[in-house]
Amino acid sequence: MKFSCLRLFKYYLGSEFNFQKKTSMSQLQRITLFLSVLLLGILLFLARGGINSRAPLEELARKSLDPEIALSNGRPTVLEFYADWCEACREMAPAMHFIEDEFKEDLNIVLLNVDNNRWKDFVEKYSVTGIPQLNFFDKNGVLSGSSIGLKRYEEVRPIINSLLNDEKLPSLMVDGKVSNLQNSLPI
Questions:
Q1: How confident is the model at residue 28 (pLDDT cuts 50, 70, 90)?
Q2: Could you give the residue numbers annotated as active site?
Q3: Backbone angles phi, psi at 146, to 5 degrees
Q4: Mean pLDDT of 31-37
Q5: 57: number of CA atoms within 13 Å, CB side?
Q6: How confident is the model at residue 16 (pLDDT cuts 50, 70, 90)?
Q7: I want to staple 107 with a disulfide (CB 3.0 to 4.6 A). Which of 17, 53, 85, 103 is the partner?
């Protein structure tokens, strides 16, 4: 005797179950279901940032000035050396984005991707061996200090204030999460 899955299913549910029975939805139920799905889709879209959603790291990199222009336009500049794969860089990006928004009229924030050969000369010139690396320049384009590793907003803000006020930078330490570049740079 052959048993199929359908026969077993009928057996366990009882013979009164009709597999051919179709359920129909009223017009009101269809409209309600459509509107619910549409509303859910819109909420998910907005929760993900809408049309202009970009990761803070991407957005900062996209808005960055060319470093030569930034270092010669009379405003203090922060060069951030980063990589897309760097977790510490991505973790620090919201703080840097907030600083960029807060000081956009007075400060240049320039992101240089260490994996882009275009910035190889800058990586070598500023001896980038770990990322994120922040290099701080005064309004004359003179290097005032640098920092390697993940920094929070509360740690970067006093440095920015010192740059803007032409003061000596606070002590900068190499700490936090750092990504090593020794074997990752294309040569």
A1: confident
A2: 86, 89
A3: -145, 165
A4: 88
A5: 17
A6: very low
A7: 103
In this structure, what is the dihedral angle of CA atoms 100, 92, 60, 44, given to the nearest 10 degrees?
-110
Mean pLDDT within 31-52? 77
Count of structural domains, the chain: 2
CATH of the domain at 173: 3.40.30.10
Q: What is the pLDDT of residue 49?
A: 53
- Which secondary structure element, helix H or strand E, spans residue 148, and what is its range? strand 143-148
Q: Are residues 69 and 9 in the same domain?
A: no
Question: In whole angstroms, what is the distance from residue 95 CA to residue 103 CA?
Answer: 12
pLDDT in tens, 124-166: 999 999 999 999 999 999 999 999 999 999 999 999 999 999 9
169 or 17, which is more confident: 169
Same domain, 43 and 65: no
Cβ–Cβ < 8 Å for 126, 81: yes
Residues 34 and 62 in one domain: no
CA distance 79 to 134: 6
Cis-peptide into 158, omega within 30 deg: no
For helices 87-102 and 153-164, give the axis angle rounded to 10 degrees. 40
Q: Is residue 186 part of a domain?
A: no
Residues 152 and 121 in one domain: yes
Q: How far is CA 82 from the centre of its chain?
A: 11
